Each structure stands twice: as structure tokens, then as C-alpha cells.
Amino acid sequence: MSEHAIEFLRGWIGEKVHCQPSQAKLEKQAETLARECAAKAAEVGIPLEDIQEEVGDIQELIASRLEEAAEADENRQASSKAEE
Predict the structure, then answer these.
(1) Which residue pairs from 48-52 have beta carbons closer than 8 angstroms and sit at least 24 positions apart in sequence?
(2) Backbone angles phi, psi at 71, to 5 degrees
(3) CB 73 within 8 A of CB 19
(4) Are 20 and 14 in contact (CB under 8 A)?
(5) pLDDT digits (tens, 9 = 90+) for 9-47
(6) In terms of CB atoms within 10 Å, which end of the chain has fewer, N or C?
(7) pLDDT of residue 59
(8) How far is CA 70 from CA 31, 42, 54, 73, in A?
(9) pTM for the model
(10) Average pLDDT over residues 50-78
């Protein structure tokens, strides 16, 4: 995968992927974001195949990042409550 494609994907995920409150919403959001990512990559001349070659299914990657963000948010909230 080209460095340009890697940089694009990292930046795009960082900008678009935020924590979601429930698993059902998380999956729907991952699906929507994967379509948006593929469309934006195409706009900037990065074939989806280049991204998938490096990371596999982008929807699965995005879902994983959403889950990580949700867990981090839960940990921050728990930590804040413990400090109170």
C-alpha cells in the first residue's frame, strides 16, 4: 500500500471515527463510514483495493476503532467517577 494511501486512511479515521453509545449503532456507523471512506479515497485517487490490500475490510477496521473509542470513553468516565 502506498504511503499516500496509509496517510489518507489514518487521517480520515482520526477525523471521522468517534465513540458510539451502542453496539447496534456502532455497526451501522461503521458501515456508513466505510462507504464514505471508500468514496473519499476514490475522490483523491486512492483505489479501495490499495487500502484493502493493507488493512483488509475497512468496515471491520472502522468498527474496531469505534469499539476502541467507546471503551476509552467508558474508561475515562469510570476514572472521573472514581476521582469524585
Answers:
(1) 50/1, 50/2, 50/5, 51/1, 51/5, 51/9
(2) -65, -40
(3) yes
(4) no
(5) 888 887 877 655 566 788 888 999 999 999 999 999 999
(6) C
(7) 93
(8) 17, 29, 25, 5
(9) 0.67
(10) 86
